[in-house]
Each structure stands twice: as C-alpha cells, then as structure tokens.
Amino acid sequence: MVTAPDLSRHEVFDVLAHSRAQLLRSATLGDGLAVAVWRNAADATRYSRPSHHTLSLYLSGGHGTWRREVPELRGEPGRLCVMPAGHESHWVVGGEQSFVHLYFDEAQLAPLAVRLLDREPREVQVPDLTFVGDAGVAGPLHALARLDWQDPQARLQANALGHEALAALLVGHATRGHRTPPRGGLSAHVRRRLVDWTEARLDQPLTIGEMAAVAALSEHHFARMFRTSFGIAPHAWVLWLRIERAKQLLRHSDAPLDEVARQCGLASASHLVNRFRARTGVTPGQFRQFVA
User: Fold this and answer.
1) What's this model's pTM, rounded to 2 decimal places?
2) Can you give the residue range of the structural domain that contains 171?
3) Which of 146, 148, 185, 289 is the most buried (most CB within 10 A)?
4) CA gap 240, 87 in Å, rounded
C-alpha cells in the first residue's frame, strides 16, 4: 500500500482539504505533477492567489455548481476549469459532484513553452478558464483519473497523460503574457541556436562556459539571462533534456543502461538510475518494462 502524499503545499488542495470536500485519492506523478480526485456537495470554496496552477475536470455531476465571477455558467461532466497561479475565484457547489485536479507549477511549463510554442515561458500565460469543453485536454485527464496510481506502471502512464493534457492546454488555450516582447533575456534567434546546439551534444559533458560562448555572453550574464528566458537554470534545462533523451532510448532500443547513460551524457548507469528515478518516480529498468 502506497502512503497518500502530503499535497498541502498546493493551496487549492489545502483549501479543499479544509472544506466539506472528500478526498477520494491522490498521488504525486513525478516531474512536479500531482493529482487528486475529490467528491463534494452543498459547499462554498474560495481560492485566493495560489502559487501553483490547477487543471480541473468534472467527472460526474456539477450541474448546480457555479462561479460567482461568471454566474451564468454551470458545470457538467467533461467540463474543464483552469485556475492559474495568482487568480481569485469563489465557487458555489450544488449537488454531489466528483472531479479530478492536476496541480503543476511554472517549472513544468517552461520546457513545453520553449519546445511546443517556440516562446519564452514568461511570454506564455496560463488562462483562467471556467467550464469549457476541450476533448484534447479532457481526454488525457479522463484516462488519468481511471488509473490505479498505487501501481508504478499506472503512475508512469499518468505522468505521460498529465504531460499530454498540459501540452494540449498550452497549444489550445495559452495566451501571450505581453503585448510587446519582454525586455531582457536572450534574443529569439540566440535561444533557438542554443536549444539546437545543446540537443546535438547531449552525449557530451556540457559546461556553462560552453553554453555562454554559444550565446556570446559572459558566464554570469548568460546564467542570469538564460533563467530569464527559459524559466529555469541552465543545468536544470540540460538535465531535463538528458532525461527526455533517456526516455526515448529506453522506449525504442534495448541498449544496456551504461550505453543509455553514455548517450545521454550521464557519468554512469547508477547516475542515470538516480537522476531518472528522482524525475519520474521509477527506475529506467521499470520504465522500459512498462512501456515495452
């Protein structure tokens, strides 16, 4: 039996935990994603400037639930809500309903913004949405909610489905956070050149100095401007790319772990195991077994 995780750092989760809502189950999915299924009825909740984003899907009921800011709208099964970090919302819950919440931070969006939208994370704004229909987002969340998260293979599948839902959310609903290009950070062409250069050398040790040279900046200036543009530190970005490369190799080849580690620029199989498990919650061997 897997012990239920403490998700109280997510303010939306904590608000519900202190309301009439009943927590049915919850889990951490790796990569900074967390999920919970709730049941509620005859309640009122308020979310005040949470530090994280919440993607919500109604699984059942919801017809008598409404948001005070948009009282003409009502929930129903299959409807989505997005409660971005820093938002304010007041909810009146009618009859019994169940819903799944996916909690995530800005750090989970940074690589997606760069890769999917070719934008800096600070240019991408998570929308405030209430009771919208979008099968591309709802489908992965429905599938995620049906899984047994106590099973390691199911948690891995849930992780992939969570990322799929976030990608669909960004592509379909994200808006530009600035009408004009934000000041500071790396220029668009330097950012693209740096991404291409890094991905072409993931099998090698990479240093901040080498990356700074690609951008024609001092190491100190580069580190600051990289974080401004990418939303994360250079070493965190490179590690994210290395683990993504490892996933692809584990999924599509039978190379031994030492070889996978080498092709990802990691020092050894044990280093790969430690980094991979910290990121995904499973070992490379388990990952390969589950996706085979």
Assistant:
1) 0.84
2) 11-176
3) 185
4) 28
Which pLDDT score is estimated for 174? 87
- For residue 15, which phi and psi values (nearest 5 degrees)? -60, -45
Which residues in 165-206 belong to E strands, given as ranges?
175-176
Residue in the block written with tokens 């401004």: 228
Same domain, 153 and 246: no
Q: Given this model, what pLDDT does residue 4 score? A: 67
Which is nearest to 62 in space by CA: 73, 49, 75, 50? 75
Q: Give residue 209's pLDDT.
A: 95
Burial of 256 (0-12, 13-18, 19+ CB in 10 A): exposed
pLDDT score for 182: 61
Q: Which two tokens stand for residue 85?
A: 């970090």
How does DSSP classify residue 103? E
> What is the rounded end-to-end Cα distance, in angstroms, of the chain?
25
Say if residues 122 and 182 touch (Cβ distance below 8 Å): yes
Specify whether 152 is located in the same domain as 229.
no
CATH code assigned at 56: 2.60.120.10
Distance, in Å, from the CA atom of 236 to the CA atom of 232, rounded to the nearest integer, reads 6
Q: Among 148, 160, 157, which residue's Cα sits nearest to residue 290?
A: 157
- Region of 60 (left: φ > 0; alpha: ψ -120 to 50; beta: rest) is beta
